[in-house]
Please model this.
Amino acid sequence: MEHTYDALIIGAGVAGNAIARELSRYEIRVAVLEKELDVGMGTSSRNSGVLHSGIHYKPGTLRARLNVRGNAMMGGLCAELKVKIQYIGKLTVAQDEEDVRTLFALKEQGEANGVPGLEILDTGAMQTIQPGVGGIRALYSPTTGIICPYGLTIALADNARMNGVDFYLGREAAAIRHDANGFTVKTTEGDSFKARVLINAAGLYADRICSLLGISQYRIYPCRGEYLILDKRLQGSLSVLVYPAPRKGSAGLGIHLTNTVDGNILIGPSNEYVDAPDDSACTSDIIAQLKKEGHELLPGISTADFIRNFSGLRAKQTPPEIKGFNDFVIESRTDYPGFINLLGIESPGLTSSPAIAEMVRGMVAERLPLKEKAAFKPERPGRTELFHELPAEEKADLVARDPDYGEVVCRCEQITKREVLDAIQNPLGARTIAGIKYRSRAMMGRCQGGFCLPRIVQILEKEFGYRPEDYLLFSKGSHLFSGRVR
Model:
Protein backbone atom coordinates (compact mmCIF):
# COMPACT_ATOMS: atom_id res chain seq x y z
CA MET A 1 0.00 0.00 0.00
CA GLU A 2 1.24 3.50 -0.84
CA HIS A 3 0.76 6.50 1.47
CA THR A 4 1.50 10.14 0.72
CA TYR A 5 2.34 12.82 3.30
CA ASP A 6 3.95 16.23 3.47
CA ALA A 7 6.26 15.24 6.33
CA LEU A 8 7.29 11.76 7.44
CA ILE A 9 9.07 11.13 10.76
CA ILE A 10 11.06 7.94 11.30
CA GLY A 11 11.18 7.08 15.00
CA ALA A 12 8.55 7.45 17.73
CA GLY A 13 10.75 8.23 20.70
CA VAL A 14 10.38 11.43 22.71
CA ALA A 15 12.09 13.58 20.05
CA GLY A 16 10.10 12.13 17.15
CA ASN A 17 6.81 12.47 19.02
CA ALA A 18 7.62 16.03 20.13
CA ILE A 19 8.26 16.92 16.49
CA ALA A 20 5.02 15.19 15.43
CA ARG A 21 3.04 17.10 18.03
CA GLU A 22 4.65 20.41 17.03
CA LEU A 23 3.93 19.84 13.31
CA SER A 24 0.34 18.84 14.11
CA ARG A 25 -0.31 22.54 14.78
CA TYR A 26 -0.22 23.17 11.02
CA GLU A 27 -2.28 22.36 7.95
CA ILE A 28 0.07 19.68 6.64
CA ARG A 29 -0.18 15.90 6.46
CA VAL A 30 2.21 14.25 8.93
CA ALA A 31 2.96 10.59 9.72
CA VAL A 32 5.30 8.70 12.03
CA LEU A 33 6.94 5.35 11.25
CA GLU A 34 8.07 3.22 14.20
CA LYS A 35 9.61 -0.23 13.98
CA GLU A 36 8.32 -1.30 17.43
CA LEU A 37 4.68 -2.07 18.23
CA ASP A 38 4.34 1.01 20.45
CA VAL A 39 5.93 4.41 20.87
CA GLY A 40 8.84 5.06 23.22
CA MET A 41 10.06 1.47 23.46
CA GLY A 42 13.76 2.39 23.22
CA THR A 43 15.82 4.98 25.05
CA SER A 44 12.75 7.13 25.72
CA SER A 45 11.29 4.61 28.18
CA ARG A 46 14.59 3.45 29.66
CA ASN A 47 16.29 6.39 31.33
CA SER A 48 16.40 8.30 34.62
CA GLY A 49 13.53 10.65 33.78
CA VAL A 50 15.61 13.68 34.81
CA LEU A 51 15.01 17.21 33.53
CA HIS A 52 18.54 18.56 33.43
CA SER A 53 19.27 22.17 34.30
CA GLY A 54 22.04 22.71 31.72
CA ILE A 55 25.24 22.74 33.81
CA HIS A 56 26.99 19.88 32.04
CA TYR A 57 27.31 21.19 28.49
CA LYS A 58 29.75 23.55 26.82
CA PRO A 59 28.35 27.06 26.26
CA GLY A 60 27.32 27.70 22.67
CA THR A 61 26.57 24.05 21.85
CA LEU A 62 23.19 22.76 20.75
CA ARG A 63 23.11 20.53 23.83
CA ALA A 64 23.47 23.54 26.14
CA ARG A 65 21.05 25.82 24.31
CA LEU A 66 18.31 23.25 23.73
CA ASN A 67 18.66 21.86 27.27
CA VAL A 68 18.03 25.22 28.95
CA ARG A 69 15.24 26.13 26.53
CA GLY A 70 13.58 22.71 26.86
CA ASN A 71 13.76 22.85 30.65
CA ALA A 72 11.94 26.18 30.63
CA MET A 73 9.25 24.87 28.24
CA MET A 74 8.55 21.60 30.01
CA GLY A 75 6.31 22.84 32.81
CA GLY A 76 3.75 24.34 30.44
CA LEU A 77 3.93 21.36 28.09
CA CYS A 78 3.28 18.87 30.90
CA ALA A 79 0.34 20.94 32.15
CA GLU A 80 -1.24 20.69 28.68
CA LEU A 81 -0.53 16.98 28.30
CA LYS A 82 -1.45 15.90 31.88
CA VAL A 83 2.03 14.53 32.59
CA LYS A 84 3.54 14.48 36.09
CA ILE A 85 6.51 16.79 36.58
CA GLN A 86 8.37 18.02 39.67
CA TYR A 87 11.20 20.58 39.80
CA ILE A 88 12.89 19.23 42.94
CA GLY A 89 16.49 20.35 42.42
CA LYS A 90 19.78 18.44 42.43
CA LEU A 91 22.93 18.14 44.54
CA THR A 92 26.08 17.32 42.57
CA VAL A 93 28.34 16.02 45.33
CA ALA A 94 32.13 16.31 45.71
CA GLN A 95 34.06 13.60 47.60
CA ASP A 96 37.52 15.24 47.38
CA GLU A 97 39.21 18.50 46.43
CA GLU A 98 39.48 17.52 42.76
CA ASP A 99 35.69 17.09 42.73
CA VAL A 100 35.29 20.52 44.38
CA ARG A 101 37.19 22.14 41.52
CA THR A 102 34.83 20.31 39.14
CA LEU A 103 31.82 21.81 40.97
CA PHE A 104 33.09 25.37 40.56
CA ALA A 105 33.75 24.72 36.85
CA LEU A 106 30.22 23.34 36.43
CA LYS A 107 28.75 26.37 38.18
CA GLU A 108 30.64 28.75 35.88
CA GLN A 109 29.59 26.76 32.83
CA GLY A 110 25.95 26.58 33.92
CA GLU A 111 25.79 30.32 34.52
CA ALA A 112 27.24 30.93 31.06
CA ASN A 113 24.39 28.77 29.69
CA GLY A 114 21.78 30.82 31.55
CA VAL A 115 20.98 28.30 34.31
CA PRO A 116 19.46 30.20 37.26
CA GLY A 117 19.98 29.79 41.00
CA LEU A 118 23.22 27.77 41.13
CA GLU A 119 24.95 27.58 44.53
CA ILE A 120 28.01 25.83 46.00
CA LEU A 121 27.03 24.42 49.42
CA ASP A 122 29.08 23.32 52.43
CA THR A 123 28.28 20.14 54.36
CA GLY A 124 25.86 21.90 56.71
CA ALA A 125 23.79 23.34 53.87
CA MET A 126 23.89 19.98 52.06
CA GLN A 127 22.52 18.19 55.12
CA THR A 128 19.75 20.77 55.47
CA ILE A 129 18.56 20.01 51.93
CA GLN A 130 19.21 16.24 52.05
CA PRO A 131 19.94 14.70 55.47
CA GLY A 132 22.42 11.84 55.36
CA VAL A 133 24.00 12.69 52.01
CA GLY A 134 27.75 12.00 51.85
CA GLY A 135 30.44 14.33 50.48
CA ILE A 136 32.34 17.50 51.41
CA ARG A 137 30.69 20.10 49.10
CA ALA A 138 27.84 20.14 46.59
CA LEU A 139 26.57 22.20 43.67
CA TYR A 140 22.84 22.88 44.04
CA SER A 141 20.79 23.37 40.85
CA PRO A 142 17.15 24.22 41.69
CA THR A 143 15.79 23.93 38.13
CA THR A 144 16.65 20.24 37.84
CA GLY A 145 13.48 18.16 37.86
CA ILE A 146 11.94 14.76 37.33
CA ILE A 147 9.32 13.53 34.90
CA CYS A 148 7.86 10.21 33.75
CA PRO A 149 9.81 9.69 30.48
CA TYR A 150 7.48 7.12 28.94
CA GLY A 151 4.47 9.11 30.16
CA LEU A 152 5.68 12.20 28.29
CA THR A 153 6.52 10.19 25.15
CA ILE A 154 3.07 8.56 25.08
CA ALA A 155 1.29 11.86 25.82
CA LEU A 156 3.07 13.64 22.97
CA ALA A 157 2.01 10.85 20.59
CA ASP A 158 -1.57 10.83 21.87
CA ASN A 159 -1.89 14.59 21.38
CA ALA A 160 -0.30 14.44 17.94
CA ARG A 161 -2.76 11.69 16.99
CA MET A 162 -5.68 13.82 18.28
CA ASN A 163 -4.49 16.57 15.96
CA GLY A 164 -4.34 14.43 12.83
CA VAL A 165 -0.91 12.77 12.79
CA ASP A 166 -0.97 9.16 11.57
CA PHE A 167 1.15 6.56 13.40
CA TYR A 168 2.32 3.39 11.68
CA LEU A 169 3.62 1.06 14.38
CA GLY A 170 5.54 -2.10 13.61
CA ARG A 171 6.88 -0.54 10.39
CA GLU A 172 10.65 -0.58 9.94
CA ALA A 173 12.25 1.46 7.15
CA ALA A 174 14.03 -0.89 4.75
CA ALA A 175 14.86 1.38 1.77
CA ILE A 176 14.80 5.11 1.02
CA ARG A 177 14.88 6.77 -2.40
CA HIS A 178 15.25 10.50 -3.01
CA ASP A 179 14.22 12.34 -6.18
CA ALA A 180 12.99 15.77 -7.26
CA ASN A 181 9.58 15.15 -5.64
CA GLY A 182 10.94 14.17 -2.26
CA PHE A 183 11.39 10.78 -0.62
CA THR A 184 9.98 7.28 -0.95
CA VAL A 185 10.38 4.99 2.07
CA LYS A 186 9.77 1.26 1.75
CA THR A 187 9.13 -0.71 4.94
CA THR A 188 9.76 -4.30 5.95
CA GLU A 189 5.96 -4.76 5.95
CA GLY A 190 5.74 -3.90 2.25
CA ASP A 191 4.26 -0.41 2.67
CA SER A 192 5.48 2.55 0.65
CA PHE A 193 5.47 6.13 2.00
CA LYS A 194 6.04 9.26 -0.04
CA ALA A 195 6.86 12.60 1.60
CA ARG A 196 8.30 15.97 0.66
CA VAL A 197 10.12 16.21 3.99
CA LEU A 198 11.74 13.24 5.74
CA ILE A 199 12.82 13.55 9.39
CA ASN A 200 15.25 11.04 10.86
CA ALA A 201 14.52 10.70 14.59
CA ALA A 202 15.47 7.02 14.83
CA GLY A 203 17.70 7.35 17.91
CA LEU A 204 19.96 4.32 18.24
CA TYR A 205 19.25 3.48 14.58
CA ALA A 206 19.70 6.98 13.16
CA ASP A 207 22.99 6.09 11.49
CA ARG A 208 21.28 3.16 9.73
CA ILE A 209 18.61 5.49 8.35
CA CYS A 210 21.41 7.75 7.08
CA SER A 211 23.03 4.77 5.38
CA LEU A 212 19.80 4.00 3.50
CA LEU A 213 20.29 7.37 1.76
CA GLY A 214 24.00 6.77 1.22
CA ILE A 215 25.13 9.07 4.05
CA SER A 216 28.09 7.30 5.66
CA GLN A 217 29.73 10.01 7.78
CA TYR A 218 27.95 9.10 11.02
CA ARG A 219 28.12 6.16 13.37
CA ILE A 220 26.18 5.48 16.57
CA TYR A 221 27.92 3.59 19.38
CA PRO A 222 25.33 2.07 21.75
CA CYS A 223 26.23 2.58 25.41
CA ARG A 224 24.25 0.59 27.95
CA GLY A 225 23.25 1.92 31.35
CA GLU A 226 21.80 -0.39 34.01
CA TYR A 227 19.51 0.68 36.86
CA LEU A 228 18.07 -0.67 40.08
CA ILE A 229 14.56 0.31 41.22
CA LEU A 230 13.91 0.75 44.94
CA ASP A 231 10.62 0.00 46.66
CA LYS A 232 8.25 2.83 47.53
CA ARG A 233 8.95 2.17 51.23
CA LEU A 234 11.78 4.68 50.75
CA GLN A 235 9.49 7.36 49.30
CA GLY A 236 10.49 10.64 50.91
CA SER A 237 14.06 9.52 51.65
CA LEU A 238 15.32 11.85 48.92
CA SER A 239 14.17 15.44 48.77
CA VAL A 240 16.46 16.22 45.81
CA LEU A 241 18.40 14.32 43.18
CA VAL A 242 21.89 13.28 44.28
CA TYR A 243 24.67 12.96 41.66
CA PRO A 244 28.42 12.47 42.05
CA ALA A 245 30.73 15.09 40.55
CA PRO A 246 31.44 13.84 37.01
CA ARG A 247 34.88 12.39 36.30
CA LYS A 248 36.79 13.21 33.14
CA GLY A 249 36.52 10.67 30.32
CA SER A 250 33.32 9.04 31.55
CA ALA A 251 30.63 8.01 29.04
CA GLY A 252 27.90 9.36 31.34
CA LEU A 253 27.31 11.49 34.43
CA GLY A 254 28.06 8.71 36.90
CA ILE A 255 25.87 6.48 39.05
CA HIS A 256 23.37 8.56 40.98
CA LEU A 257 20.16 8.45 43.01
CA THR A 258 17.04 9.68 41.28
CA ASN A 259 13.52 10.17 42.58
CA THR A 260 10.71 9.26 40.24
CA VAL A 261 7.41 11.15 40.06
CA ASP A 262 5.61 7.97 41.16
CA GLY A 263 7.53 7.46 44.40
CA ASN A 264 10.32 5.00 43.60
CA ILE A 265 14.05 5.76 43.67
CA LEU A 266 16.42 4.71 40.89
CA ILE A 267 20.11 3.86 41.32
CA GLY A 268 22.17 4.15 38.15
CA PRO A 269 22.99 4.24 35.36
CA SER A 270 26.21 2.40 34.72
CA ASN A 271 27.88 2.95 31.35
CA GLU A 272 29.19 0.17 29.13
CA TYR A 273 29.63 0.21 25.37
CA VAL A 274 27.91 -2.73 23.65
CA ASP A 275 27.82 -3.96 20.07
CA ALA A 276 24.08 -4.02 19.39
CA PRO A 277 21.53 -1.18 19.73
CA ASP A 278 19.00 -3.60 21.27
CA ASP A 279 21.32 -5.17 23.85
CA SER A 280 19.36 -4.25 26.98
CA ALA A 281 20.71 -7.09 29.11
CA CYS A 282 21.24 -6.71 32.86
CA THR A 283 24.36 -8.19 34.47
CA SER A 284 25.19 -9.45 37.96
CA ASP A 285 28.48 -7.55 38.27
CA ILE A 286 26.82 -4.22 37.42
CA ILE A 287 23.99 -4.93 39.88
CA ALA A 288 26.61 -5.41 42.61
CA GLN A 289 28.31 -2.15 41.58
CA LEU A 290 25.01 -0.25 41.67
CA LYS A 291 24.23 -1.55 45.15
CA LYS A 292 27.68 -0.55 46.43
CA GLU A 293 27.64 2.96 44.98
CA GLY A 294 24.03 3.51 46.00
CA HIS A 295 24.96 2.72 49.61
CA GLU A 296 27.80 5.25 49.42
CA LEU A 297 25.43 8.03 48.35
CA LEU A 298 22.57 7.06 50.70
CA PRO A 299 23.72 4.67 53.46
CA GLY A 300 20.17 3.87 54.68
CA ILE A 301 19.37 1.64 51.66
CA SER A 302 18.96 -2.10 52.41
CA THR A 303 19.06 -5.10 50.07
CA ALA A 304 15.35 -5.75 50.69
CA ASP A 305 14.55 -2.41 49.05
CA PHE A 306 15.59 -3.54 45.53
CA ILE A 307 12.53 -4.66 43.52
CA ARG A 308 13.69 -4.69 39.89
CA ASN A 309 16.52 -3.86 37.51
CA PHE A 310 16.46 -2.66 33.89
CA SER A 311 18.77 -1.14 31.33
CA GLY A 312 18.65 1.44 28.56
CA LEU A 313 21.00 2.51 25.79
CA ARG A 314 22.47 5.89 24.89
CA ALA A 315 22.97 6.79 21.22
CA LYS A 316 26.56 8.00 21.52
CA GLN A 317 28.63 9.43 18.69
CA THR A 318 31.90 8.95 20.57
CA PRO A 319 33.55 5.50 20.40
CA PRO A 320 34.70 3.53 23.47
CA GLU A 321 38.32 4.66 23.16
CA ILE A 322 37.25 8.33 23.39
CA LYS A 323 34.07 8.25 25.54
CA GLY A 324 32.76 11.66 26.59
CA PHE A 325 30.11 13.53 24.59
CA ASN A 326 29.65 15.03 21.14
CA ASP A 327 27.15 17.76 20.39
CA PHE A 328 23.72 16.93 18.99
CA VAL A 329 23.47 16.73 15.21
CA ILE A 330 20.30 18.47 13.99
CA GLU A 331 20.72 19.39 10.35
CA SER A 332 18.78 20.15 7.20
CA ARG A 333 20.83 18.41 4.50
CA THR A 334 21.69 20.32 1.35
CA ASP A 335 22.75 17.16 -0.50
CA TYR A 336 19.30 15.65 0.07
CA PRO A 337 16.93 18.65 0.15
CA GLY A 338 14.08 18.01 2.57
CA PHE A 339 16.03 15.52 4.71
CA ILE A 340 16.21 16.67 8.34
CA ASN A 341 18.66 14.57 10.31
CA LEU A 342 18.76 14.13 14.10
CA LEU A 343 21.67 12.09 15.37
CA GLY A 344 23.33 11.49 18.75
CA ILE A 345 20.34 12.75 20.75
CA GLU A 346 21.42 11.25 24.06
CA SER A 347 21.11 13.05 27.41
CA PRO A 348 19.74 15.73 27.72
CA GLY A 349 17.49 14.65 24.85
CA LEU A 350 14.44 14.17 27.08
CA THR A 351 14.77 17.68 28.55
CA SER A 352 15.56 19.17 25.16
CA SER A 353 12.72 17.48 23.24
CA PRO A 354 10.26 20.42 23.04
CA ALA A 355 13.09 22.76 22.03
CA ILE A 356 14.30 20.24 19.44
CA ALA A 357 10.76 20.17 18.03
CA GLU A 358 10.77 23.97 17.74
CA MET A 359 14.09 23.88 15.91
CA VAL A 360 12.95 21.17 13.50
CA ARG A 361 9.71 23.04 12.83
CA GLY A 362 11.80 25.97 11.63
CA MET A 363 13.65 23.67 9.23
CA VAL A 364 10.38 22.19 7.95
CA ALA A 365 9.08 25.74 7.35
CA GLU A 366 11.93 26.26 4.89
CA ARG A 367 10.52 23.42 2.76
CA LEU A 368 6.75 23.54 3.39
CA PRO A 369 4.24 26.36 3.92
CA LEU A 370 3.07 26.13 7.54
CA LYS A 371 -0.39 27.54 8.11
CA GLU A 372 -1.66 27.21 11.67
CA LYS A 373 -4.71 25.02 12.31
CA ALA A 374 -7.62 26.88 13.83
CA ALA A 375 -8.78 23.60 15.41
CA PHE A 376 -5.46 22.57 17.00
CA LYS A 377 -6.10 21.08 20.46
CA PRO A 378 -3.06 21.59 22.73
CA GLU A 379 -4.57 19.80 25.72
CA ARG A 380 -4.76 16.05 26.19
CA PRO A 381 -7.99 14.81 27.82
CA GLY A 382 -7.89 13.18 31.22
CA ARG A 383 -6.07 13.99 34.43
CA THR A 384 -2.52 13.95 35.75
CA GLU A 385 -3.31 11.93 38.88
CA LEU A 386 -3.98 8.20 39.08
CA PHE A 387 -7.35 7.15 40.53
CA HIS A 388 -5.93 6.26 43.96
CA GLU A 389 -4.31 9.71 44.22
CA LEU A 390 -7.65 11.55 43.93
CA PRO A 391 -9.65 12.95 46.88
CA ALA A 392 -12.15 10.50 48.39
CA GLU A 393 -15.17 12.46 47.14
CA GLU A 394 -13.93 12.43 43.55
CA LYS A 395 -13.15 8.72 43.71
CA ALA A 396 -16.63 7.96 45.03
CA ASP A 397 -18.19 10.00 42.23
CA LEU A 398 -16.17 8.15 39.58
CA VAL A 399 -17.08 4.74 41.02
CA ALA A 400 -20.76 5.71 41.04
CA ARG A 401 -20.57 6.61 37.36
CA ASP A 402 -18.33 3.69 36.34
CA PRO A 403 -18.11 0.60 38.60
CA ASP A 404 -14.85 -0.46 36.89
CA TYR A 405 -13.16 2.22 39.00
CA GLY A 406 -14.17 0.20 42.06
CA GLU A 407 -12.30 -2.96 41.03
CA VAL A 408 -8.58 -2.95 41.87
CA VAL A 409 -6.57 -5.01 39.37
CA CYS A 410 -3.04 -4.13 40.57
CA ARG A 411 -2.79 -4.25 44.38
CA CYS A 412 0.75 -2.87 44.69
CA GLU A 413 0.02 0.30 42.69
CA GLN A 414 -3.74 0.39 43.41
CA ILE A 415 -4.60 0.47 39.68
CA THR A 416 -8.24 -0.11 38.80
CA LYS A 417 -9.87 -2.07 36.01
CA ARG A 418 -11.01 1.19 34.34
CA GLU A 419 -7.41 2.44 34.24
CA VAL A 420 -6.29 -0.85 32.68
CA LEU A 421 -9.12 -0.68 30.14
CA ASP A 422 -8.17 2.90 29.25
CA ALA A 423 -4.57 1.76 28.74
CA ILE A 424 -5.73 -1.04 26.44
CA GLN A 425 -8.08 1.26 24.47
CA ASN A 426 -5.42 3.91 23.87
CA PRO A 427 -5.53 6.39 20.95
CA LEU A 428 -2.66 4.69 19.14
CA GLY A 429 -4.18 1.20 19.29
CA ALA A 430 -1.05 -0.30 20.89
CA ARG A 431 -1.87 -3.36 23.01
CA THR A 432 1.37 -4.96 24.14
CA ILE A 433 1.82 -5.90 27.79
CA ALA A 434 4.56 -3.27 28.09
CA GLY A 435 2.26 -0.67 26.53
CA ILE A 436 -0.45 -1.40 29.11
CA LYS A 437 2.16 -1.24 31.87
CA TYR A 438 3.56 2.13 30.79
CA ARG A 439 0.10 3.67 30.39
CA SER A 440 -1.49 2.42 33.61
CA ARG A 441 1.39 1.59 36.04
CA ALA A 442 -0.11 -1.87 36.56
CA MET A 443 2.70 -4.44 37.01
CA MET A 444 5.10 -1.76 38.32
CA GLY A 445 4.77 -2.47 42.04
CA ARG A 446 6.72 -4.65 44.41
CA CYS A 447 5.38 -7.95 43.01
CA GLN A 448 6.14 -6.82 39.42
CA GLY A 449 2.93 -8.25 37.96
CA GLY A 450 2.70 -11.44 40.02
CA PHE A 451 -0.82 -10.52 41.13
CA CYS A 452 -2.20 -8.36 38.31
CA LEU A 453 -0.75 -9.86 35.11
CA PRO A 454 -3.10 -12.91 35.18
CA ARG A 455 -6.04 -10.52 35.62
CA ILE A 456 -4.89 -8.36 32.70
CA VAL A 457 -4.61 -11.52 30.59
CA GLN A 458 -8.21 -12.37 31.54
CA ILE A 459 -9.42 -8.89 30.59
CA LEU A 460 -7.74 -9.12 27.19
CA GLU A 461 -9.24 -12.56 26.62
CA LYS A 462 -12.80 -11.94 27.82
CA GLU A 463 -13.32 -8.36 26.66
CA PHE A 464 -11.09 -8.15 23.58
CA GLY A 465 -11.05 -11.74 22.31
CA TYR A 466 -7.33 -12.35 22.68
CA ARG A 467 -5.97 -15.80 21.81
CA PRO A 468 -2.82 -17.17 23.49
CA GLU A 469 -0.68 -16.26 20.48
CA ASP A 470 -1.92 -12.64 20.55
CA TYR A 471 -0.17 -11.71 23.78
CA LEU A 472 3.11 -9.88 23.11
CA LEU A 473 5.37 -8.37 25.75
CA PHE A 474 6.64 -5.44 23.64
CA SER A 475 7.87 -6.39 20.16
CA LYS A 476 7.22 -8.83 17.36
CA GLY A 477 8.06 -12.34 18.51
CA SER A 478 7.99 -11.51 22.24
CA HIS A 479 5.17 -13.95 23.00
CA LEU A 480 3.86 -14.15 26.54
CA PHE A 481 2.72 -17.74 25.93
CA SER A 482 4.60 -20.26 23.83
CA GLY A 483 4.49 -23.96 23.12
CA ARG A 484 1.37 -26.09 23.07
CA VAL A 485 -1.76 -24.48 24.52
CA ARG A 486 -4.76 -26.65 25.42
About this structure: The two ends are 37 Å apart (CA to CA).
